[in-house]
Amino acid sequence: MSERKSNMEALRILSMLMVLTVHIDGASLGLPSAPGTDIGAREAWKLAVEAAAITGVNCFTMISGYFGIRLRFRSIASFLFQCVFYSVGVYSLGMLLWPGLTSAEGWARSWLVLTYTDLWYVPAYFCLMLLAPVLNPGLEALSRRRFAIVLALFALFTFWCGWWRGGRFNPTGYTVMQLVFVYMTARYVRLHVSATFLRRHRLLWAALFAAATAGIFLTSLWLPFTKAFAYNSPLVMAATVALFFLFTTSDFRSRAVNYAARSALAAYLLHKAPLVWNNLMRPAVTDLWDSLTLTQFTLAAAVLALGIYLAAMAVDAIRRLIWDTLSKSITISLTDK
User: Fold this and answer.
1) Fewest 10 Å CB contacts: which of 47, 118, 147, 161?
2) CB within 8 A of 308, min separation 6: which ones?
3) Helix-, strand-, coil-residue percentages of the chain, each rounded to 5
4) Any residues with CB less than 8 A from the CB of 105 and at least 6 apart, and which?
């Protein structure tokens, strides 16, 4: 197995820290809806942080598109096991900590990670995995020109009919369609954009990311936040691509980075588990917001995000040990005659 590229793994870590930031910010504290330019420092802080971090989900998916999802039974089983491990594990622990908020029926439902779940990304990404065997050869068969035309039409359809007009197929980007769009964009980059071209324009990508992020913030002053911070917003997609390009311009190897990146999805599954989110995460964030100054809260939020990621790394090491044992046993049982 080839060693993972640490620049992409660093982006994976940053993407999940961005997701954590968005959940600490807008998802926990709430955002003003089209507040206008006459807002206080705290409301402006919320919008600025949201603008800077909203590309996390898209970038996380871009990495999958760049390398391409290779669907195998083991990859499906590994993904589902990881989701079940956190869903059932957190709920089982919750039955001890919050017996009044849990039930046997809830525990049984915690196993159904593709249906009874508050984590939209889990079933959406699973669907993307199932589509990958069709998407990969289809996109690779297209010439560069035809791929560019298809991608441009897909983008126009998504931005106009989905984002601007609110089409049900992809109104805000919390959909399989958005993941397919991001996946296609990343595949185009991998197949048809040279590394030399990307490295040559490194400063341009940094400037584009800064400009797009500023644009997201400015549009959030007059657009409802559901549009300004939608994953399928043109500005959010522009910032996503620029940040992704920026990370492709570096190339380094780090075992520490690669190891930490293995727990990126675990950080999402852990902190967004309903019992953790509703009874620990969100109440803690709102209490900190109400009791601290803006500077103090910013530092506390950064520590919280890092703490969640480190906790996920510790728990996920146990999960991987269990999975390695189980998968080895399954492999042996399937190969024994």
Assistant:
1) 118
2) 20, 267, 270, 271
3) 75, 0, 25
4) none
| Long-range pairs for 145-154: beta carbons < 8 A, 24 or more residues apart | 147/188, 147/191, 147/192, 148/188, 148/192, 150/184, 151/184, 151/185, 151/188, 154/181, 154/184
Count Cβ atoms below 10 Å from residue 242 Cβ, excluding itself.
Answer: 20
Confirm if 27 and 272 have CB atoms less than 8 A apart.
Answer: no
Task: For residue 63, give the amino acid letter.
Answer: I
The token duo for 45 is: 């802080």
215-223, Cβ contacts within 8 angstroms, sequence gap of 24 or more? 216/50, 216/51, 216/54, 217/47, 217/48, 217/51, 220/31, 220/47, 220/50, 220/51, 221/34, 221/35, 221/36, 221/37, 221/39, 221/47, 222/34, 222/36, 223/34
Q: Are 198 and 249 in contact (CB under 8 A)?
A: yes
Q: Give the span between the Cα atoms of 35 and 33, in whole angstroms.
A: 5
Contact partners, residue 142, CB within 8 Å, separation at least 6? 150
**263 near 313, Cβ under 8 Å?**
yes
Supply 211's token pair.
């400009």
Domain ranges of the chain: 6-335
The arithmetic mean of pLDDT across residues 26-34, rounded, is: 87
Torsional class of 309: left (φ above 0), alpha (ψ -120 to 50), beta (otherwise)? alpha
Distance CA 40, CA 84 (A): 42
Q: By C-alpha distance, which of 110, 2, 15 is closest to 65?
A: 15
**pTM surpassing 0.90?**
yes
What is the tens place of the pLDDT at every residue in 191-248? 999 999 999 999 999 999 999 999 999 999 999 999 999 999 999 999 999 999 999 9
- The whole-angstrom separation of Cα 48 and Cα 224 is 15
Q: Do residues 273 and 89 touch, judged by C-beta distance below 8 A? A: no
